[in-house]
Design goal:
Helices cover 24% and strands 19% of the residues. By secondary structure, it is an alpha+beta fold. The radius of gyration is 10 Å and the shape is globular. Bound molecules: iron/sulfur cluster (SF4).
């Protein structure tokens, strides 16, 4: 599983970084950035919470 943040949709609420700080960080520009590497299995549940919890539906997985 890999995830990415749609820059056009992200509004910087930070829900993702709060739910899964190992994967999502808020950049100096105020928007979220996702780790580019394969998500470890033990983090998939919290990544899925972040996907579901993003108010802008800006997080996508592949
Ligand atoms: S929760 Fe969604 S809108 Fe908010 S910072 Fe994360 S990706 Fe962006």
């Amino acid at each position: 599983m890999r995830v990415f943040v749609d820059d056009d949709s992200c509004r910087g609420h930070g829900v993702c970084a709060a739910l899964c700080p190992s994967v999502f960080t808020i950049t100096d520009g105020g928007y979220a950035e996702a780790a580019t590497s394969e998500i470890p299995a033990n983090l998939e549940a919290s990544v899925n919470e972040a996907i579901a919890g993003c108010p802008e539906r800006a997080i996508h997985n592949a």
